[in-house]
Design a protein that fits this description.
Layout (H helix, E strand, L loop, with lengths): L4 E6 L3 H12 L4 E7 L2 H10 L4 E4 L8 H7 L5 E6 L5 H6 L4 E4 L4 H29 L5 E6 L2 E6 L3 E7 L2 E6 L3 E5 L2 H6 L6 E5 L2 E4 L5 E2 L3 E4 L2 E4 L5 H8 L3
Parallel strand pairs: 1-2, 1-3, 3-4, 4-5
Antiparallel strand pairs: 6-7, 8-9, 8-12, 9-10, 11-12, 13-14, 14-15
Amino acid sequence: MGKKISCLIVDDEPLAADIIEEYLSRMDGYELVAKCNSAIQAFSILSQNKIDLLFLDIQMPKLTGIEFLKSLHNKPKVIFTTAYSEYALEGYDLDVVDYLLKPIPFERFLRAIDKASRLISSSTVLASQAGNSHAASEPYIYVREDKITQKIFLSEILYIESQGNYVKIVCTNREITSYSSISLIEEKLPENLFLRVHRSFIVSTDKITAFSGTTIMIGKIQIPIGRSYKTLVEQILNQE
């Protein structure tokens, strides 16, 4: 096997996390980057490391695994590890690789990581092919405005606002309105450069000039921080 698959374990039960770590230690081709007990810690690790596979508990304090996963874009492959079977349907709606119920038998663990490994290998090939043609260019996205597809460089984006069935992308020298959801736009953006701070707002983190417990400032523009995003936003911005 070539490059090892980098893994992160997020579980507030030390014994459960230790079992997954022990299972991984039996496997060739997998590297455990970190093990943490909260989604907040996991966000910090993900922002600093390339993680291929995330083992994620659901019931955790402050921020559940499902809430955490919904906040991410450019997600790693995810395997839910939980004692609660009632979350299985929602897990698959979030496109997770697998859903493991505790206590996790080793044979069931093997099937899950085999599936994850095949998906990661496929994604790596596609990313490599795309990178060969665009490696030297400044990162950008395409969005459709009316009947025209607009190219927007990430460096020019200040913030993005949801307006019903449309999104307004506010840039340094123009505004673009596109028929799209903010979640679809969010999936195109790298999580180390952009932050969802409200159900209706995404901001460019390097354009933030000030913030409080309720507001993000981009120059003179005030953007609200949603209550359900507050804890995560504060943790991320306080690390900047």
